[in-house]
Structures are given as structure tokens and as C-alpha cells.
Design a protein that fits this description.
The structure holds two protein chains of two kinds. By secondary structure, chain A is α/β, with parallel strands linked by helices. Chain A is built from 14 helices and 24 strands. In chain A, strand 13 and strand 14 form a beta hairpin. The longest helix of chain A is centred in the last third of the chain and has 19 residues. Among the domains of chain B are: about 160 residues, no CATH class; about 110 residues, Orthogonal Bundle (Cytochrome Bc1 Complex, Chain D, domain 2). Chain B is globular, with a radius of gyration of 22 Å. Classes of the chains: A alpha/beta, B mainly alpha. The interface between A and B is medium-sized, with 25 and 26 residues.
């Protein structure tokens, strides 16, 4: 029997980026907010102080900050004809857990989607015709938000994080040195770009010689000490090269911990309960209203937390699973195409090119998560796709994320995988190689989706989530195009000796790391027949339920998702504050 | 206080015996000391809650609430996990542990039954109701300067504090300090009661600052050096003290160790936000900022700063550091410190303090800087600057010689100057903090 707790105005399930943003917004609006996080409390001095944060074995390989898949995991398959099996070791993506979520171990690459990304269906339909948006069983659709609507929230997140970069389009005026493809920005980045090491400098030079623009990657590793609008302070990045898969000991990386929690935790109307695993969202008998959530604490005690507003602010995969477990909305069925919860699961298509130098020393250990120069000519619809046989795209970047000695040893083609010759090549090339990252989109396809596994259950006896996903030729062709273009730039870099193209081929595999950019499953749209939530991340079926995060993406763009995740969360907060609190009910009538 | 005069001579004798006993017993003279706690864990909402008009004497209660902030009563009279001002916080003194009293309105355990006269006697004379003496861990040598009106206002506020029926644990003091009447002797030797009297010829704001610094705010309780019986060395007022392995820095106009290079605005910013261009508030001062100065009126902070800027500088201490230690220290500094404190000790002002010109680093007594290197520290979290930025502990990572060398280096680089630090000093601080060295980096054979 669950212990009944006093009701609150809002309960949030999961306390990463979106939980922290919404928590701050709702508390400032005067709501009494409780956040439930199934993981542990995490903070800079105790969990990743500078004295031990740069420990590749502990954090990267032994998964110190990630979800423990022995405790909870999901099952995986490529298509409906296979039996899904539990993912017993994290590989392709690295699920976060604990306060701050995956936002603790991210690279802090802060992107905005292109205007055309937000209209992926109608834009491509108009330019390339019906076949382009329906090939490969594509189920692509538009975001229900326009650029003008979302831009102020992108800007809010930039100011929260102290994003370091150079604008390419300020209110319609193209700016030298920035990304001229980006949508018009209302303001310059709050901090100047990071200082570029040798590799990104040579890459930018080669790209410009080839007629492309090259610009500094927008970075949440701040280029100078920064105090954000909440008063929270970020220290100047030291370029130590331990961001991705690590917590930052220097307070330099924008995370919930560095940007929001110092402010939010002082609020008397905010409560955070860690190690509290939500089992399901409870609803009224007619299923039209959420009454609160049932959760279990670390002692195994069960509680019911009643709330006026329920927010699913966990990671994409857990949000979809809780929707299905709570029987909210109709599960998606790939055979009939009916149902919406779990539909349009998408991901990221990663390719790369290793560039080797004979004499030049690249010092790869001077790194940061978003330290790069970028070419954006082949992203989204920045280029003519006619005759290419795919839609979508990605950016090409010389990412200098670090020179972590176990993970980041690149050897030229023809090097054996082990033994004395491998060692010789590793030692020879550690300082003489850089990586060009080809960070591509994944469109939505009929066969890629999420549902509950019929066989495997977690320690609470609940069905695991089942992921059914594969790359289609749309993604593979797109990625191949990117890799070829990247290799051309690589070969134009001064002092280059050789390049190695790493194409994405065959079926998606759960094994090699790619990115933790899982999207879709609770997609947003302009009416209840095509989406789970409206543009305010509000459930069409249960209006006092909000589902935040990248689950809302109808398909995934070529950029990293967090900027858009945060912007959509701010949009949801504004919808709640300016409309819902005055009149509870659907914020969009369709 | 009838009979006080009559027994004065006797108490002087007792006091002298106590003084001699103490001198013999104590290996190391030290002030009354505080165990630092994390600066934002106490339930102190009552310090800033708006006092409603519905209370009969609302105006007086409001003043009292403000004065409780000015006196930083919460830091010592609230323990972690305890009710607001319910006492029971253990103060580590060289003579044992003294537990703070319950100041809530509880009639049995708190001050709910106290009269205004009794409360004033406690503040003014260090006298408990019934004639007993308070231990001078309660800073009555400072609160004696509080006016009667302010004393009455404080009591009026305390009477509105939610009652908590909890008695503090008995003190665990060693003999002869456990004999409370000895305090009367200490009082005769060291305590002069008397309300604050403004200094003629000084401005109103200066006098307000003097009232707060030398009275209710009891800054000297930590920042004035102590004699062997924990009494202020009054001729060295505010020249810096050592307590519980922290250094309360020099607050005089000394350019190295004191506030000589700080402007009035610098001091105000530090007290208000917990940091300024020169320093971050950590250690016990983080509590003072959190529970007191950050929630005081700007005018009072300016008054405090005005008074402090008018203190004559403490004497200069000459020093020179051996080259070998400086070379070794530079290597440690480059490895361990520059990521936050930057090359040339420039720091990231208001984030990670500059070490160039840093007063804590240049205190003659290196205890504070050793404490921070060994155990780490957090900056005060305040409403304006909520980030409790931290310095990690290096005890497990650096050996005593390395700690001493880097301390010597920081104290004598970039125009800094302070006596060099020895491994023996580092070892002593490490031991007294109960920190072990878990990795023998400096003794490792593969260096």
C-alpha cells in the first residue's frame, strides 16, 4: 500500500536538464514543485572534482556516471522480424542517471536546428516532391513550432549556459565568421568562441580554401568566466579534454548543476527527492486526468505523490516507457501505422574521417567537448539534394574533444589491430592525427519505433522498453555523402599524409559508441491524430500531463539535440505560466 | 549581581590559578574554536521571513530579527538537523566542547521564560539567570556593547521563534575549566562590561560600523588574536586569529595580510555576495556571510567597511623563501592549481580567487592556507551569487612536503611575501584535521 503524500502543484519525474529548467520556471511562478529523480545526488566537489575528474578508466570505460544496465535496461532489435534482447552493456548510447541526467556527461555542444529542420516534411515536399518525403517508408512530419516562435527560447538557453560562439545571422544580417545558414538570432552569443587549437585551425583553413564557410562550434564549455541570469557562475574552460562521458570539475561546462541548481535549491517551494523511481503516472478512471505518480524510494517503500500537474522529464526512453506503462495514449503499431506512443523513434547517423599527418604535431589533449571548427554546407537542406537519393544531412567538424589515451588512438589504414606494429603506429600517430566528425540526421521511418518488450522485465516486474531501429538507405547515403565531403577537406589540410574514411555501413549496431541522441516516441505535432503532445509538450489525451525532452522530435536533425530540447522546455514553461495557470486545460485546440 | 564586588579578590586568586594551570596544561594557546559546517544546511528561513503586522510589537520584533542576523546568532545557536536557534551546537575549544544554548521561545529549554533584564544581563554581563556565569564562548565581551533597546528587541524576536523543547548536552570540559565559577575570575582579568559609546569626531557611519564590528557582530571573537586563556589581545585588535585550524585573517589596513588593498565597495561586495575581486568567503566565514552579512542592509555593510578601513595596519613580518622549495612548489602549482587559479596566480576573480596579493595566503600563520589545500573548501552561497564554488581536497593526492612547498610558493610568488612553510607544519594541520594520506605520491619509488 503506497503512502499518500501531501499534494503539490507539480511533480516532475526525472531531474536532468528539462526537469531543472522547468523546475526553475515553475518555482519562479510560485508553484510548489517536487522533483523525483531515480538516480543519486551529484555535485562537482563530491562526484567529479578536478583532482580526480579526468579518469578515463573510471568514467568512460567503467561507466561511473551512467545508468547501471544490470539494474535497468532496454531490449534492442533492428526490425520486427527479430527477437529483441536486453542491452547488457552500454555501447551505442550512454544513458545518464542521477541528478543532472545525461546532461552531466555531455559535451555541451549547443546547437539550434535550421528553419528547414523544423519543417522537414513541408519544406522537402515543396522542394523535392512527394517521393522524397515518402521514400524508405518515411514518416517525417513538421514540428508545430516556427523559427520565430522558438528563437527566444534558444536565446534563453544560450544565456543560461553562457554559450561561447560566433553568430552567423543576427536578425537577418549575415555575420562574418559565424554560421550563415543558421536562422536569424536575436542576439550574439553571450561569450566569444573558444580559442582554437591547431587541428581545427588547419581544418577551417582547408574548408575555406575549398569554398566553404568554417566557424567555431557553439560551446557550453565557457570561453571565459560567466555569471548567468540566475546568478550561477561558470569558470573558464581549461581545455582539459574530459567532457564527453565525464563531469567537469572546473565548473566550466553548462549542466543543471552549474547553471540552475545553485539557484533552484535555495527556493523554499522546491523539493528534490533522489533515489525515487517512479513506477507509473496515475490517472482518473476515465484516463483524462493525471492524479499524480506512484514511486518507490531506495528503501523499497512505495509512495503516491498527488499533483495538479505531472511532468515526465526523464530521458526519452524512460518517458516513452512510462507513457506505455501508465496506459496513456495509444501504443504505435508499425504494421497498421495506428497509434502514436513510441512512433518515430530516431537517432543520429555518425560517420568520420581520420586525418593523419607526417610531421605536424596536433596536441590532441588540448580538448573540450565542443572545441571544433565546423562546416555546415551539408546539413539539413543547406544544399541541393536533387538526385542524391536522400533528405537530411549533417555537419562536418574537426572536433578536438580530447586526447584520452584509451579511447582516442587513431592508426592509419593498414595498421594491424594489435601487437608491436600496432603499438608503434599508435605511438607514432597519437600526436599526428585528428578526427573529422560527420554528425548526421536520422529521418523517421515506419519501422523504427519503441514499445514494451513482451518478454523481459525489470526488477519491479515491469516490462522493459523495446527499441526497434535500423538505418535505412536514406541515412546511409546521407552519411556516405558527408564522409566523402569531409575526406576531401581532410586531404586539403596542410601537411596531411593520408586519410581514413569511416563510413556508416550495414545495420545499426548497439556496440560501438555513436551518440546518446535518442529521439522521438512522444512526438509533437499540430493535432492529436499525428502526435502525442502539442507544441507546449502537453499531452493531447491528458492535459495536465507534460512530456519534455527529445521524445518530442518528429525526426532528428543533423545537429546535437540539447539546444532544441531546452528551447522546447522553455516554450512549455511559458505555455504553463502564461496560459495553463490561468485556465487549466488544453493549451492548443485542434 | 549582589556580592560580586565582595568576592572579587577571591576570584582574582582563583583566576590566576586557572591561568597558571592553563599555561601548564596547554601545549598550544588557541582561541575558542568552531567546527565548520556546510554553509547552507541550516533551517534559517526564520531569519528572513517577513514579520507580519498582526504581531503586537511587530516593529520591535522586526528589529530584533534584523539584529539576530547582525549578530550571526544562528551559526552557533543552530546545529545541523536541529530547529532554528534551538542550540546544541558543539563549540570545540582547547578546553573541551561547549554546547550552545537553546534560544527558542520554549519556556523550559529556551528563553521563553526570560525577562528583558535577564536577557540584557546575559548579553551585557555574561550572566545567566540566577547569577551563574556564561562561558566566554558566548561572545559577551562583545555583546556587552549592545544597547538596552537592541537587547530588548532581540529578546522580543526570540520570543516569536517556534519553541523547541530540547536541552543542550552537558559541556565536556576538562578540569579545572569545568568549574564554571572560575569564569568570574576570567571576567575580572579580561572582561570589561559597558555599552557602546560613540567616538566623538568620527562620522555617524563610522560609529555605526564600530557598534556592529566591536559589538553585536563580534568580529574580533575570531579576527583578534588570543592570549593563553582565549581572551583577546586587545592591543592587537582585528590583526587576525587562529581557530579550529582556520585563520581568521587580519582585518587591519595591512597591505599584504589585511584589507589595505580593499576599497569600501570591495568589503561591501564581499560581505553581501561572499566574494569580490580579491577573495572568496570560505571556512567559518562562509557561515557568517550566509547567515549574517549577506542579509544585512547595505548601509550597515558600508558602515562596517568604513570602520574597518580606518584600522591602523598591523606590523609587517619579514620573510624569505628558500629557492629549492620555491622550485618544487612551482611544479606542484603548475600541475595542481593553475586550472582554476591560473598562471601568475591571477585567478578568476569572484569565481576562483586570485592568489596574487591574496591575504589568506599571506597570513603569518599558514594554518588557513594549509587547511584549504589539504581539506578543500566551498565559497559561501548567497542570494546574489548562489554557486558554492569549491576547491577540492588535496590531502589524498599531495604529500606533506608537496603541500608545504606549494604553500611556500603561493606565499612568496608574484610579489607575495610570507614566512615559508615546512612539511612539519603541513603534517600537523593534516593530523589535526584527521586527514590521512592515502597515496604516497611523494614517497613513491617510481618518481
Amino acid at each position: 500500500m503506497a503512502t499518500q503524500l501531501p499534494p503539490v502543484d507539480a511533480v516532475m519525474v526525472g531531474f536532468g536538464w528539462t526537469g531543472a529548467i522547468l523546475g526553475q520556471q515553475l518555482c519562479d511562478a510560485g508553484l510548489n514543485v517536487v522533483a523525483l529523480e531515480r538516480g543519486v545526488w551529484r555535485d562537482t566537489p563530491t562526484d567529479f572534482a578536478t583532482t580526480f575528474a579526468q579518469d578515463e578508466l573510471r568514467y568512460m570505460w567503467r561507466h561511473h556516471l551512467f545508468q547501471n544496465v544490470a539494474y535497468d535496461t532496454l531490449t534492442i532489435r533492428n526490425n520486427v522480424n527479430q527477437d529483441a534482447l536486453p542491452m547488457r552493456r552500454l555501447g551505442s548510447f550512454l544513458l545518464g542517471t542521477g541528478v543532472g541526467g545525461a546532461g552531466v556527461h555531455w559535451n555541451a555542444q549547443i546547437w539550434r536546428f535550421l528553419e528547414s529542420d523544423l519543417k522537414a516534411y513541408s519544406h522537402n515536399l515543396k522542394r523535392y516532391g512527394k517521393a522524397a518525403v515518402s521514400a524508405y517508408d518515411m514518416t517525417v512530419q513538421d514540428y508545430p513550432v516556427s523559427w520565430d516562435e522558438i528563437e527566444p527560447y534558444y536565446d534563453a538557453f544560450d544565456k543560461l549556459c553562457g554559450t561561447s560562439g560566433k553568430a552567423g545571422n543576427l536578425s537577418g544580417k549575415i555575420q562574418e565568421g559565424g554560421n550563415r545558414f543558421e536562422g536569424p538570432r536575436s542576439a550574439e552569443y553571450p561569450n566569444p568562441p573558444m580559442a582554437m587549437p591547431y587541428g581545427p585551425t588547419l581544418f577551417a583553413k582547408a574548408a575555406i580554401e575549398k569554398g566553404y564557410q568554417a566557424f567555431p562550434h557553439p560551446s557550453g564549455n565557457v570561453s571565459r568566466p560567466y555569471t548567468n541570469p540566475l546568478g550561477a557562475q561558470l569558470g573558464q574552460c581549461t581545455y582539459c579534454g574530459f567532457c564527453e562521458k565525464f563531469g567537469c570539475g572546473n565548473y566550466s561546462k553548462a549542466t543543471a548543476q552549474t547553471t540552475i541548481l545553485p539557484y533552484l535549491l535555495m527556493k523554499p517551494n522546491f523539493t528534490l527527492r533522489t533515489e525515487s523511481e517512479v513506477l507509473k503516472v496515475e490517472t482518473t478512471a476515465d484516463g483524462k486526468r493525471a492524479t499524480g505518480v506512484t514511486y518507490v524510494n531506495s528503501a523499497g517503500e512505495e509512495f503516491f505523490q498527488p499533483a495538479e500537474i505531472v511532468v515526465l522529464s526523464a530521458y526519452v526512453l524512460q518517458n516513452v516507457r512510462l507513457m506505455l506503462l501508465s496506459k496513456i495514449g495509444k501504443p504505435y503499431d508499425p504494421k497498421s501505422g495506428a497509434g502514436l506512443v513510441g512512433k518515430n523513434y530516431a537517432y543520429q547517423t555518425m560517420g568520420s574521417v581520420n586525418v593523419f599527418f607526417e610531421e605536424k604535431i596536433m596536441n590532441p589533449f588540448i580538448g573540450a567537448g565542443a572545441l571544433a571548427t565546423v562546416v555546415d554546407e551539408f546539413n539539413g537542406d543547406n544544399f541541393d539534394h536533387s538526385g542524391l537519393g536522400f533528405i537530411g544531412g549533417g555537419y562536418i567538424a574537426q572536433m578536438h574533444t580530447g586526447g584520452r589515451p584509451i579511447e582516442m588512438i587513431y592508426t592509419p589504414p593498414g595498421t594491424p589491430a594489435w601487437g608491436a606494429d600496432w603499438k608503434k603506429a599508435a605511438a607514432r600517430n597519437y600526436l599526428r592525427a585528428v578526427n573529422l566528425s560527420c554528425h548526421g540526421s536520422v529521418m523517421a521511418h515506419r519501422g523504427n519505433y519503441l514499445d514494451l518488450d513482451p518478454t523481459y522485465r525489470d526488477s519491479f516486474g515491469r516490462p522493459m522498453l523495446r527499441m526497434t531501429f535500423d538505418f535505412t538507405d536514406n541515412e546511409l547515403k546521407m552519411s556516405r555523402h558527408l564522409v566523402d565531403k569531409a575526406a576531401e577537406i581532410g586531404l586539403a589540410m596542410e601537411g596531411v599524409s593520408t586519410v581514413k574514411k569511416n563510413y556508416r555501413t550495414g545495420s545499426w549496431s548497439v556496440l560501438p559508441y555513436q551518440t546518446t541522441h535518442n529521439t522521438g516516441g512522444t512526438i509533437m505535432g499540430d493535432n492529436p491524430t499525428n502526435s502525442v503532445v502539442n507544441k507546449y509538450s502537453q499531452s493531447w489525451d491528458v492535459p495536465n500531463l507534460f512530456v519534455t525532452g527529445a521524445g518530442a522530435f518528429p525526426q532528428n536533425a543533423g545537429y546535437n539535440p540539447t539546444g532544441t530540447v531546452a528551447a522546447l522546455t522553455y516554450l512549455a514553461a511559458d505555455g504553463i505560466k502564461s496560459q495553463y495557470l490561468k485556465k487549466a486545460g488544453p493549451l492548443v485546440v485542434a | 549581581m549582589a556580592g560580586k564586588t565582595g568576592s572579587a579578590l577571591g576570584w582574582v586568586v582563583v583566576g590566576m590559578i586557572a591561568a597558571i594551570a592553563a599555561a601548564l596544561l596547554l601545549a598550544r594557546p588557541s582561541a575558542a574554536a568552531y567546527t565548520p559546517m556546510s554553509a547552507t544546511t541550516l533551517s534559517t528561513r526564520a531569519l528572513t521571513e517577513v514579520v507580519p503586522d498582526s504581531i503586537a510589537n511587530a516593529q520591535q520584533v522586526r528589529l530584533g530579527q534584523y539584529l539576530v542576523r547582525a549578530g550571526d546568532c544562528a551559526s552557533c545557536h543552530t546545529r545541523e538537523g536541529g530547529g532554528f536557534l534551538s542550540g546544541g551546537f558543539g563549540l570545540n575549544t582547547p578546553y573541551g566542547t561547549i554546547y550552545s544554548t537553546n534560544l527558542t521561545s520554549d519556556k523550559d529549554a529556551g528563553i521563553g521564560g526570560w525577562s528583558a533584564d535577564q536577557f540584557y544581563a546575559a548579553l551585557h554581563d555574561g550572566a545567566a539567570p540566577g547569577g551563574g556565569a556564561l562561558y566566554p564562548a558566548m561572545p559577551y565581551p562583545y555583546t556587552t556593547r549592545v544597547t538596552r533597546a537592541d537587547s530588548d528587541a532581540i529578546l522580543a524576536f526570540l520570543k516569536t521563534v517556534a519553541p523547541v523543547n530540547e536541552h543542550q548536552p552537558p559541556n565536556s570540559l576538562s578540569f579545572p575549566f569545568s568549574v564554571r565559577p572560575l569564569v568570574h575570575g576570567w571576567n575580572l582579568l579580561f572582561f570589561r562590561s559597558g555599552e557602546f559609546a560613540p567616538t566623538a569626531g568620527k562620522s555617524e557611519i563610522w560609529n555605526r560600523g564600530a557598534y556592529l564590528v566591536t559589538g553585536l557582530g563580534h568580529c574580533g571573537a575570531c579576527h583578534t588574536p588570543k592570549n593563553s586563556l582565549s581572551a583577546d589581545k586587545t592591543r592587537q585588535a582585528l590583526q587576525g586569529g587562529t581557530l579550529d585550524q582556520w585563520v581568521a585573517p587580519d582585518l587591519t589596513q595591512n597591505m599584504r595580510t589585511g584589507l589595505g588593498s580593499w576599497s569600501v565597495d570591495d568589503i561591501v561586495e564581499y560581505l553581501k555576495t561572499g566574494r569580490n575581486a580579491h577573495a572568496n568567503a570560505g571556512g567559518s566565514m562562509a557561515e557568517v556571510v550566509a547567515y549574517s552579512t549577506s542579509i544585512l542592509a547595505d548601509a550597515d555593510l558600508r558602515a562596517i567597511a568604513t570602520y574597518l578601513k580606518d584600522q591602523p595596519p598591523s606590523p609587517e613580518v619579514g620573510a624569505s623563501a628558500p629557492d629549492a622549495a620555491m622550485r618544487r612548489g612551482a611544479a606542484v602549482f603548475s600541475d595542481a592549481c593553475t586550472s582554476c587559479h591560473m598562471e601568475e596566480g591571477a585567478g578568476q576573480p569572484r569565481f576562483f580567487p586570485p592568489l596574487r596579493g591574496n591575504a589568506v595566503a599571506q597570513q603569518t600563520d599558514p594554518t588557513g592556507v594549509l587547511h584549504i589545500i589539504l581539506a578543500g573548501d566551498r565559497t559561501a552561497a548567497t542570494a546574489q551569487r548562489p554557486s558554492a564554488l569549491s576547491m577540492p581536497a588535496f590531502a589524498w593526492k599531495l604529500g606533506d612536503q608537496q603541500v608545504a612547498d606549494v604553500a611556500t610558493y603561493v606565499r612568496n610568488s608574484w610579489d607575495n611575501r610570507a614566512p615559508p612553510v615546512t612539511a612539519t607544519q603541513a603534517k600537523a594541520v593534516r593530523k589535526s584535521l584527521g586527514l590521512k594520506k592515502e597515496r604516497l605520491t611523494e614517497d613513491s619509488t617510481d618518481r
